[in-house]
Specification:
The protein has 268 residues and is mostly helical. The chain has one domain. Helices cover 81% and strands 0% of the residues. α3 packs antiparallel against α9 and α5 packs antiparallel against α9. The longest helix is centred in the middle third of the chain and has 30 residues. The radius of gyration is 18 Å and the shape is globular. The two termini are 22 Å apart. The C terminus is likely disordered.
């Protein structure tokens, strides 16, 4: 069991490290990040929404026939979660900021946790599938840390608190996902993984189109559009890099094929 966890846990820790680097980069300039928190939030909305449509959702649809149903549950689950948070934590001057940020941060935490689960599952299928998946997912860890930090700063959470909670949500949850999935990695099929991806996509889509787009109404149109476009451009760059996310998409969809060729993989 420990040997089967070594590779996915190693890549999960790398992902957490890359996310932390992103957090350090954006947290280092505290005054600057506060001044441009709204623009960061809009860029995060463009990046996150694009990643959902270009990467997370297509993978979910390729794995689960009911992905659209789970996407719907995820999206409206985000709305319901936000409603419950606001009901349990009425808006007061000292609580509004953090309570408004809880839903999107939980959504990012769930997504990062699922990333860790995916590491464990794909390495169980084959080592090459796990490596391609890990490389593709690690590419978006840096901006994921920036996104989590930007959300918290958008709601005026202090620099130190934003760093801590963004680290918990976007970095620490990935290796925990590996450890959680390890004991049951051979019991989760592609359809269940697709469902998890679809729920994650729905939650993140709610975050991108709801809380993160809120600053658009109070931002000059040109600056807001440029910020939103920059996030979309970064997402496209990550998706269509030469090593991009196409290879491990095929690894996922060809899960059964990899399961039938372990001797070749072991001899490589």
């Amino acid at each position: 069991m420990l040997s089967s966890l070594q590779a996915p846990l190693y890549f999960g820790l790398i992902a957490a490290f890359v996310t932390t680097i992103g957090l350090l980069a954006v947290a280092f300039w505290e005054d600057w990040s506060r001044r441009y928190a709204n623009l960061f939030g809009l860029a995060a909305a463009g990046m996150l929404g694009s990643m959902v449509f270009l990467h997370i959702l297509p993978r979910a649809l390729s794995l689960s026939q009911n992905a659209s149903v789970w996407l719907t549950f995820g999206f409206f689950g985000g709305l319901l979660m936000n409603f419950l948070v606001r009901t349990w934590s009425p808006e007061r001057p000292d609580q509004t900021a953090m309570s408004a940020a809880i839903t999107p941060i939980i959504a990012i935490g769930i997504h990062s946790f699922i990333d860790g689960v995916i590491y464990a599952i794909t390495f169980a299928a084959s080592f090459s599938a796990g490596v391609f998946t890990a490389i593709g997912l690690i590419l978006h860890e840096f901006p994921e840390g920036v996104i989590a930090f930007a959300i918290l700063r958008r709601y005026s959470v202090s620099n130190k608190a934003a760093f801590f909670w963004a680290f918990v949500a976007a970095a620490a949850t990935t290796p925990f996902g590996v450890l959680f999935a390890g004991p049951v990695m051979y019991g989760l099929g592609p359809d269940l993984i697709g469902a998890l991806f679809a729920v994650s996509a729905g939650l993140l889509l709610y975050v991108a189109t709801g809380p993160l787009l809120a600053p658009l109404a109070e931002t000059p149109p040109t600056r807001g559009l440029l910020a939103l476009s920059s996030g979309i451009a970064v997402a496209f760059a990550l998706i269509f890099l030469p090593i991009g996310l196409h290879d491990h998409d095929h690894d996922h969809s060809g899960h059964d094929h990899h399961e039938h060729s372990p001797p070749d993989l072991r001899n490589r």
